[in-house]
Structures are given as structure tokens and as C-alpha cells.
Amino acid sequence: MNEHIVRSYEDELALLDKKVAQMGGLAEHNLGRAFDALEKRDPRVAESVIRSDRNIDALQREIEEQVISMIARRQPMANDLRHVMSAIRISGDLERIGDLAKNIAKRALAIAHEPHPKPLISGFRHMVELALRQLKDVLDAYAERDAERAMRVWREDTQIDAMYNSIFRELLTYMMEDPRNIGLSTHLLFGAKNIERVGDHTTNIAETVNYMVNGSSITDDRPKLEQVGTIENSND
Amino acid sequence: MTDISLSAQTHKSARKVDVSSDAAKARIRARYRSEALFKGYGIAALVITGAFLVMLLSNILMNGLPSFWQHSLRMDVPVTAADIDPSGKGDPKEIAAGDFAAAARKALEAQFPGVTGRTELKSLTRLLSAGAGDELRRQVVADPKLIGQTVNTRLLLDANADLYLKGMGASTTSRTARGIATPTGTTGTIKILTSANDFAQDFANVKRLLGDRAALLSTEAARLEKGNTPDSLAKAKVARAEAAAFKTRYDQPKTVEELDDRMPSTLVEINGGLVKVEKILDTEIEGTVLLPLKSTDDSKPGDWKIVTYGVPESNRKATDRDIAFLERLQAKGVVENHFNTLFFTAGDSREPELAGVRGAIVGTVLTLLVTLGLCLPIGVMAAVYLEQFAPKNRLTGLIEVNINNLAAVPSIVFGLLGLAVFLNYFNLPRSAPLVGGLVLALLVLPTIIIASRAALKAVPPSIKEAALGVGASEQQAVFHHVLPLAMPGIMTGTIIGMAHALGETAPLLMIGMVAFIVDIPQGLTEAATVLPVQIYLWSDLPEPAFKAKTAGAIVVLLGVLFLMNGMAIWLRKKFERRW
Amino acid sequence: MDTMSTPAPMAAHQVGLARNANAKVFAADVNVYYGEKHALKNVSVNIPDRSVTSFIGPSGCGKSTFLRCINRMNDTISSCRVTGKIAIDDQDIYDPALDVVQLRARVGMVFQKPNPFPKSIYENVAYGPRIHGLATSKSEMDEIVNSSLEKAGLWKEVKDRLQESGTGLSGGQQQRLCIARAVAVGPEVILMDEPCSALDPIATAKVEELIDELRENFCIIIVTHSMQQAARVSQRTAFFHLGSLVEEGKTTDIFTNPVDKRTQDYITGRTG
User: Which residue of A has its CA nearest to C226?
Assistant: First the structure.
């Protein structure tokens, strides 16, 4: 791709990308650390995640301001216009991912005093690892303007959905075994939901990357798994 | 060599203009100096040009303005039927043909009752112009009832008399005498004796002049002797003899001296008369009476004067007698200095005082009309075609080069062309404004074409494009928009061309406009002359009065030129448009 | 408003482009030579009626040359040679039987630098109708002048000084006067060659508003250096580069998602 004749324009776009990458890295980091806090039952880690969510919010504001300023001053056209609009949308999604990570950390704080059943947590870990991988992939796809890679991420979100379904069933079973588990399970359930939401936001980012590169929106529905059934149907 | 230590920093920073070092200050001073010098040159050039202009104009004006004034005699002239209408029929033609000159002459003679001799009367009449009676004629023809009455009219003076009165004749001085003068008669040759040595001064002057002449002749003789040819030696002998004669006269202080016309004239004004001194001693003179004395009574000191005319008679046109008459007329108060309308209303004439530029002006106007009528339409149309419509190829380039060359051709060549083609081939009337106009039109045409093309080129092409864009044809665009905007430039070029044509003499001489034309031309095919040619003709004539007339005509020509250029500037300002 | 059915801008410019049924101006394989120089290469395009089409491209790309072909102003340049077909309403304008003067009454032009005639405002507008005989009486002429000035959005500002010189107006007013002058002869197509490049932003905005109003009744083709102006004002855009028509399509598509890399580089301000 040729460079802009006006170098400062080029520099501003590069700065924008850097901020997005920075934001993405922070979000990834917070998500990972939030799960660590949950798994290791470490309140200090949880609290640091909660605090550092401020930085993600600040970055989102910065990105927004920069994009508005660039639109006013540079009147970006064509791919540049798509680029800056994408940056704003992606930063919104990343901010939500950050919030979801913060929420997980809060829940980790809430259940830190209780032991967690190992199998449940390990399922959780797989889901978190997958979600983190997806997020990393999609951020790389953004940095490299690789629409193919973004679309792969988009399609593979079904795996996260599948994992969420299985954890959901497990937690239900756990809750049915012993009503004293309900408290913990509920938190874990919400936590799992949060991870699933992270996956959804990641697919949003993937769609945005595709729009940015190809200029067209995806009109088909994303492949989704069937809705998780009620308790009666889940027993097979 | 401090820059080594500064290294990277100076390398990166740009060079700055040095304003503080001594070298910089010296440069600034040098620049101011050269600017002041340049300004000085400009002003000097302007001053020199202005000085030349002022010199030229003042010279012309000084020489020319006197010709706009004329001296005449204003007196009551009896108009007798015998002179004017001898047949008594009252026929206007006969009245117009009456002898008004005689009436004028008689009236003048009546002013000098004492003058009776034939020669005296002749010189008196010579003071009047040949056309002295013209004003009277005009008055009587307009009102025939004046026949038999006495009419107060103006009698034009002859050119030489006029010249004298304008102060170009002689430098007159007079002084009162101390003694009692006794004339021996009232007319003819008389003697005047004085009780004091009143004439001593003049007597001494005469002697001195004789001495000067002797010295001059001796020097001349010496020069001739050096020549050493028999011819020059003979001449030298003659010169020596003359010198000796003068010397003798000079050395004898008390003999009567004869005045000759190479000496300033001395006259005595006494008892209402004027005597020209021919022989002189310090106490008595003998001379001719120019104006008769009233009596032979003694004249007391203070009542009579000794007058000297500084310029010797041989060096001037007016004789002593003429001057005597004129001075007397002036003393009587009949001499009138009036604006010379005749200069503008009369045609050419052999008599300087009757000569006017009207014929030349009319001829110039007619010729310029022909020139304008021909070269303006042709020139403008040619320019429009060449500029707007003609294709830009070799042929049009060739035409353009030739037009530029034509503008530089000497004007006399056009005269030859006119002679060969218009006069000899087409047999057009010689010396007519038609032919003159044709020749001048050819002369001026290249100028007008070039000026018009420049004016057309100066019109911004955006105007023509705008007109074309609205759906005008090329012709409409050019004639409705481009040409009107080029008009100021075209007009300026035209008037400059006309002013150029106004002053052209050579080509018109070639086609015969050199004749002496008296009548005012009535049409384009009648013989005429133009101002520059008139000036040329007058400058050739010997009479000194014509010198003033020539300068006067030049003033008129310049006036017309200034008028035309003024019009050009006014027209240009009026039609100048901002686009 | 858009009569074209293609959803995306055309990829490469096809040889043998057919005329659209509703196209007002149709060009097929137009080539223009200035002496030896090949200024326009095989330009083919359909331009719809009652809309604004803008020509954009770097300097010397041929957009003004092409514009001037449509009203045959290039005829005034002796070294210029035009081949190919340009038709207005399916009538070939380079047909030798066609009168150029009549063509220029049907296709009006507004130039880059406002060039009102150095006459009165009234005369400026009335000149065209007069030479084409559009008015038979003074009142008819007044009517034409009034309505043209109104259409140009200038009537209120000059109605009290119609006899004053056209050159005494401000730059923006002069350009609107030129538009009124073009409109007065009742053209079908109005060509505008960078009409706002000599105007300040307020005057430019007024002229753009005017173009917006005019497009309801005329086919307007505008050449512009400002991409923002092309983006604001036109419905279709054609990008010229080095004498060729590179891409043509809906304005929003060209400016958000152009097909050709050269188009993208130009409108985003990249070298090359």
C-alpha cells in the first residue's frame, strides 16, 4: 500500500493502530489475569484487574477523540474512512471485553473464600484459553489487515458456544446435586456467560475487520448452535 | 574556523542571511548608494528631457506668438462715391470692386498735410499694406449706405512697418538738448545751429566709427598681403588706401563729417518736425527734413531732442523716413495693435501681412478626413481578420512581417508611390486632398493595423470564450464583445496615426502639394495645401516677416497636434473599462 | 434518482460500452489529440439526465479536455483533433450537419474564473437570449432575465441594480451571474469547469446549493479539483487519470469503496 503524501496523516493512522493494539493487549491481559484470580482464588490479582480496567476505558476515549479529530481535519475517504470507523467500533468492543474481564474479577473476589470443584474450573480454563486465542487472532488480523483470518475467527466462535453449553449443563447438574453449591455455581455461570460474550464481541471485531478490508458487510447470519434447552431436555 | 566545533548543529540548521557583520553593513550601504544613484540618473534624464522640451517650445513660442498680433491704423476714412461707386448704380459687384485702396491712401495722406513731395508721398503710401482697404471694403459691402459717409475703420500696415513697430526695426534712443536750436527752414535740406555743443557726442561717435573702420581695413589689408597673389596684393592696396582715408578723417577732429547709411542714424526732433542729419559738426548739423517743421522759430532747451536710431539704415528694412512717419503716427495714437484674425481667416499670399493659414488648415482637415475615412475601416477590419479569423499559417505570418516592415518605410517612398500610381496611372487631380489622403492613408495603415492587433490581443480570451459558451458565433463574439473592448486601444492608435499623418511633408511634396495656393479649397478634388507644406513654403521665402509667420504656423500645427493627443487621452480614459 | 442498475462501480472501463436508454450524454471511444499529444484515450461513458456528474482526477488528466468536447469548445483550438462519438439525446454532436452555435445554446458552460461581460447585469443575462431570438418583446426579455437570475439565486441581491456593471459584483456573485447567463438560453446540459476554485467558502457553498437546485431540471457535469466538493455535490463520479477514464460510478461508492487502486490512491491522497 502506498503511503500518504502527507506524512503526518500516515503517522496519525499508525498511532491509531498502536492504540488499538495497546487496548487489545490490555484486554487480553486483564481477561487472563481475571481467570487466574478465579482459579487461584487470589483477591489481590482480582483487585488489580478491577483497577486496571480504567486504563482500557481511557484508551477507548483517546481512540474516539483521535478518530473524531481525524474525520474533521483529514476528511478520510474510502479505505481510510473504513479504517478509522473500524478503529472506533473495535475500541468499543474491546472496552466491553475489558468490562467483562472486570466482572469476572469481581466474581472471583466473591467466591475466593470457597474451594472450586476442579473439573468445572478446568472446563472454564479451556473456554478462557480459546477465547483468548480468538481475541489474539482477531487483533492480529486487524493489524495485518487479514480478512481471511478474521473470518476464521468469526466461524470458530461456535466452539466457544459449544463449551459454554457444556459448562452450563455441568453447573446445572452441580447445582442440582447440592443446593449449597448454588452460590458458587451462579457466579461461575455468570462468569461463563461473560466469556461467551467475549467471544461474541470478538466476532464483532472480526466482522469489522472484514468490512475494513473488503468494504462490504457480512449479511449472512453467523453460524450459531441451537439454543440451549431447558432442564428437562438437557437430560439425555 | 570555529565551525569545526559546531559540526552537526550547523550542518542541520539552514543558512541565515547575515545582517550584522561589517561586510553585511557595507553591502547594505552599497545597495542604498546604487539605489540613490539610479534615482539620480532618472531625475537627471527627466530634467534634461524637460529642458530640451522647454527650450524647443519657448523658442517656437517666442518666434511664433508675435505673428498673432498685427499693427493697423485706426482712423476715419471718408468713403466717396467717386472712388467706390463711380457709376452710381449701387451695384454690389461694382461696390466690391471699388478703389478702397485709394480711399485708404488719401486718409493717410490727410494725416501728414505738410508732406507733399512725390518721393515722400510714395514712402508714406508704402507704409500701408496692399490690402489696407479690405476691412473698409467689407464694411461698405455689408452696408452700402455708408457710401458718402466717413467710416471709422482699420487700415492694415505693411509687414515691414509692422515689424518695426514690434520692436524689431531699430533701437531708438533720444536725449534732450541743452542749447537753443535754430533751424534754417521747414522743408527740404536745412541747417540747425545750436548754442551749446549738443552735437558733440554724436560727432565724436562718428569719428570713432571712422577710426574703427580704419583699423578693420588695415587688418584686412595685412591679411590680404599675406596671401601674396597679385589679386590679393591689389586688393590689399585698395584696402590700405581706404584705411588711410578713414584714418585721415579720424585724425582731423574738427572737420564736417558726412554720415552714411552704415552708421546709426541721427535725427533732430524740433518744432513738430523731424530732420535727418547728413553732415555734422559739434554745434551744427545739416540734413533732410523728413517731417515738416511748423516754423523756423528758435527752440528752447528741453523742447527739442536729438534722436538716434541704433541700427544703421543699411541693416534694416524701414528707412529713416518710414520710421519718422510711424513714430509720428504712434504719437498721434492712431496705431493699434490687435489680434491677427487675418492669420486664421485668410489663405496664402505674397504679402506677409495678408498671408494666413486658413487654406492650409482646410486642406489639412480635408486630407485627414480622407485618410481617416480610408484607413480606419480598412485597418480595423484587417486587424480583426488577422487576429481573430485567419488561420495561423506561413501566409499569415508573411503578411504580418510585411505589415511591420511597411510601418518602417520612409514616408517619401509613399509619395513616390502616390506620384506613380495615383497621379500618373489613375490620373487623379494633382495636389488634391483626395490624393494626399490616399497617400497618407497608405502611410498610416500599418500603424493602425499594428495598434489594433495589439488592442485586440489585449482583450482577455475569457470574454470571447464566455460569448462562445452562450452560443454566439465567432463573428458575433468578436463584433459584440472583443471589438468594443479593444476600442480604446484602437482609437488611441488611430489618433496617434493621424497625428503622425498631420505632420508629414515629404510624401505630399511628391504629389505636388507644393504649389502656391491662394484660394481656400472647397472640395476633395480642388488643389490644396497642408500645414506642414505651408510651413515649408514660407520658411523658404526671403521676407523677414515670413519668418514670424512660419513660426506662427508651427505654433498652430503644434496646437492642433496637442489637441489631437489630448483628445486621444480623453477618449481613452472615457472608454477604459475594467474587466 | 439513479437510473443505473449496477450496484457497484464498474471495474475497468469497457471498450464497446453501449448507450444507456436514459443517458443524456453518451460518449463512445472518444480520443483527443493536441497535435502529436494524445490527451484523451478511448473514453466511453454514460451521463444521466437531471443529476450531477463530477469528473475528478489529477492535473493534466484530461477531464477538462473531455468536458470541453461536449460543447465543442475544443474546436477553437486549431491543433485539436477529436475522434469517436459523443451524443446528446442520441444525436451525434460531431455530425458535420450540426450547427455548433446551436449546440452551444443547448449545452451551456460556466468557467473557472468568473467572466461576466463588461456590460450591465441585465445585458449579461439578456445577450444570449437576444442573439438566439428567444424573446420578441422587452417584457418577454425582462421575464427571461428575472427568472434566470432567480434560478441562479441572485435576483434578491441585484434586482435594484440591474443596470450596474456585471464586473462590479463580488467573485461569488459574478460566478452566479455567469450561471444565470448560461441558464438564460434554456440549455439542457450545463458544463461547469471548476466553478468554485476562485471563490471563498461561503460563495462556494452558495454555488453548491445552486447546483443542487439546478439538478432537478438540468444535466450538470462538473469538473473539480476538490474531492470533497465532488463528494458533496454529485450523484455520479468519473475518475480520469493520464487521459483515460479509470472508473465511473455512484459517488458514495467511489468515495467509500472504489474498485481501482489508482482511484483509491488519488482520493486518499497517496502518491502514485
Answer: A75
